[in-house]
Specification:
The complex is a heterodimer. By secondary structure, chain A is mostly helical. Chain A has twelve helices and two strands. A two-stranded antiparallel sheet of chain A has the order 1-2. Chain B has a single domain, classed as ABC transporter involved in vitamin B12 uptake, BtuC (Orthogonal Bundle). Chain B starts with 9 loop residues before the first helix and ends in a 14-residue tail after the last helix. The chains are: A mainly alpha, B mainly alpha.
Chain lengths: 322, 380
């Protein structure tokens, strides 16, 4: 394998990890506050649809991003009302949101654009275009480092950089701010937070809204950054992979990035391993590589390798003592 | 499921509240129909006519309902044990292997009525096996069953694609599916039975597995409410600590409950594969495993509620298909929205109307007798 095909894999790993990073960090805020969220998939889907629709109609990708975020925040709030205010089952609520998003995107897409659930192809200002970092052209001929800089680091869409910047930002918010401390506390022991005179409800709602904003980014990236328009069921399980990455990373921001890169890498190579012979293993099946993120997560959850420790109060509605 | 609010009489709890939840879900669905510029009332009428208006449509309705009875029962059994089996889809998919194993190997040798019990046993076994690993991991290693069953859905999908494009595909064929089963691997349709009453089912794939589904519903009722195991399962669901204190083995109960649940989901393959398609094809459950969640929630976990809820969803599936002909703006995906709304209102938001209804009920009752304390409900 030569350098250029290696860089090719690294490049697509980064592209494929980006939506996972957004979605997994979204889940991190929500789950660290004690609200389990299996509706990352649905929120990404609705955001992808909303931003592609808005971008197609108004021709502005920034407007598209905003509309996508609004849509997924709206869905987040449904989840919040169900699981915070009405103390419903968070898993059930998440399942419901996934279904509503799956159906709604197709029905509305068909009725608005009449292309079988697709949105019109985006072009020009309707898409996020590649950003060239300074000197990308100049250093292209420098051996090894040149192609890495100009081929991989430079020339990504802006949201890719936002995603990777979101990781240190999340770390900082979580571990270095008052909000982050309270957020972590409310996921571990809401009663203690309540005793300190801080509203559990308000904290959790804020966490859920942040989750909506970040899934909005994830969805917008899928339909206006990676692809040029929305296609039916375009998240294709990425929300669940992000959830797996979140668990795999033990609900910590920096490991989340590495888990997403790992799963993105598996996604990137799964297309390329068709028919490749590996020593010892023999022929690798595409299906096995595709199932690998899920298998790895199950193995990790089983506690044979490492130990997954979810936030203690996760999934439990908070009832103020009477 | 926690019930922090006052206990209400059964007719409110099992009749009125599900009905209100359902009505609200349909009202919101109606708004979506309005949004795409069609008339919700007209859509509802078309849907009802498509599902019940003629015998063939009715046959399709019951065919879909059969799938949902199996998967609804599967989710309900797990619910009673306090477990959320979201993996019905994967278990049904893998259950198809059991059906295919019987139909492919014995289809040419034995008649269908001998193959049916074998196929029931094997589909149950395969579905149960697929639920075993998540169950064991939950019981022994404390990994969250919701996450593991989701993961197992995806693993099942990959596994089945692998098998269907590899081992199971007959030589020389391009389509990723098994060969068509021989006559012994095909369950008889109920066309003849309905003709006795003067109905023409036409091409409806309704077959004898609906009787298997109904027997399974009775079996689940007996299991949960009339056996010792069922008592233990309900105890586990109500309070794992109480179950432990009473000397019940939590591990055994979780594993057994999940395997029964997975087995019931696996049996769904009987209807789809042996009853209709006569071959194992990619993604044959078509979301039935997920519909089971809505069905179980709407039926409140009781077979007497699950069977009508399954018929309702069968009606939505069939009526929705018909609707798509007359109103192209409303495709079958409308059903997915309704399904999600039912899960939302009957499941996640079940506490939304309960306090109001409870208060109204207490006010009415207050005049006749002493109120039994409206807010004494235990906190979780």
């Amino acid at each position: 394998m030569d350098l250029s095909s290696l860089l090719d894999i690294v490049d697509s790993t980064i592209r494929l990890s980006t939506p996972l990073i957004f979605a997994a960090l979204a889940g991190l805020y929500s789950e660290r506050s004690g609200i389990f969220d299996i509706s990352l998939e649905g929120k990404m889907l609705i955001a992808a649809f909303a931003s592609a629709s808005a971008a197609a109609v108004w021709g502005s990708v920034v407007l598209g991003l905003c509309v996508g975020i609004l849509a997924s925040v709206a869905f987040s709030l449904i989840h919040g009302v169900a699981s915070i205010t009405y103390r419903g089952n968070q898993i059930v609520s998440g399942v419901a949101i996934n279904f509503i998003a799956a159906g709604l995107t197709i029905i509305l897409g068909q009725s608005w654009f009449g292309q079988g659930g697709r949105t019109p192809s985006l072009f020009g200002g309707g898409r996020f275009t590649a950003v060239d970092l300074p000197f990308a052209e100049a250093v292209r001929d420098v051996p090894v480092l040149g192609p890495i800089y100009s081929g991989v680091l430079s020339g990504q869409t802006p949201l890719v950089y936002v995603a990777f910047l979101m990781v240190p930002l999340t770390w900082w918010v979580l571990y270095r701010t008052r909000f982050g401390l309270r957020l972590r506390a409310v996921g571990e022991n809401p009663a203690a937070v309540d005793t300190a005179g801080i509203s559990v409800t308000f904290l959790r709602y804020r966490a859920v809204i942040i989750c909506g904003v970040l899934t909005g980014f994830a969805g917008a990236y899928l339909s206006t950054g990676q692809a040029a328009g929305f296609t039916r069921d375009m998240t294709a399980g990425k929300g669940y992979i992000a959830l797996a990455a979140l668990i795999f990373a033990n609900w910590k921001p920096v490991p989340v990035m590495f888990a997403c890169l790992l799963f993105g890498f598996l996604d990137a190579v799964s297309i390329r391993v068709q028919g490749v012979e590996l020593p010892l293993v023999g022929q690798v099946s595409v299906q096995f590589v595709q199932a690998l993120p899920y298998i790895l997560t199950v193995v990790l959850l089983a506690g044979f390798v490492g130990k997954a420790t979810p936030p203690k109060a996760g999934g439990v509605p908070y009832v103020k003592e009477r | 499921m926690s019930r922090p609010y006052a206990k209400l009489p059964a007719w409110i709890d099992y009749g009125l509240i599900p009905l209100i939840n359902l009505v609200v879900a349909f009202l919101v669905a109606g708004l979506v129909v309005l949004l795409v510029g069609e008339s919700p009332l007209e859509a509802a009428a078309l849907m009802l006519r498509g599902a019940f208006g003629y015998a063939e449509g009715f046959g399709f309705t019951l065919y879909y309902a059969t799938n949902f009875i199996f998967t609804g029962l599967a989710v309900a059994v797990a619910f009673h044990g306090g477990l959320f089996n979201i993996g019905g889809e994967g278990q049904a998919y893998v259950g198809g292997l059991g059906v295919a194993a019987v139909a492919l190997s014995l289809g040419a040798i034995l008649p269908w009525w001998l193959n049916l019990p074998l196929a029931i046993a094997l589909s149950f076994a395969f579905g149960a096996l697929w639920a075993f690993v998540p169950a064991y991991l939950q019981a022994k290693r404390g990994s969250h069953i919701v996450i593991t069953t989701i993961m197992f859905n995806f693993i099942a999908a990959s596994l089945m694609v692998y098998l269907l494009v590899g081992v199971l595909k007959p030589a020389g064929s391009m389509a990723p599916e098994t060969r068509t089963f021989d006559a012994g691997g095909q369950l008889p349709k109920l066309k003849g039975l309905f003709e006795l009453f003067g109905f023409n089912l036409g091409g409806a794939p309704l077959n004898v597995s609906i009787f298997v589904a109904l027997v399974a519903a009775v079996f689940v009722y007996v299991l949960i409410w009339r056996t010792r195991l069922g008592y233990e399962i309900r105890t586990l669901g109500f309070s794992p600590r109480a179950a432990r204190y009473a000397g019940m083995s939590e591990t055994r109960l979780i594993v057994v409950t999940m395997m029964i649940s997975g087995g019931l989901a696996g049996m769904m393959a009987l209807n789809a594969i042996m009853g209709d398609q006569y071959r194992l094809a990619i993604d044959f459950p078509q979301g039935a495993g997920f519909v089971g969640i809505a069905v179980a929630l709407m039926g409140r976990g009781h077979p007497a509620g699950i069977v009508p809820a399954a018929i309702l969803f069968g009606m939505l599936y069939q009526g929705g298909a018909e609707l798509a002909f007359d109103m192209p703006a409303i495709s079958r995906d409308m059903i997915v929205i309704i399904q999600g709304l039912v899960i939302l209102f009957a499941g996640a938001l079940e506490n939304m109307f309960r306090p109001g209804i409870g208060a109204a009920y207490q006010r009415v009752r207050f005049r006749t007798e002493e109120p039994a304390g409206a807010n004494v409900g235990e906190a979780r």
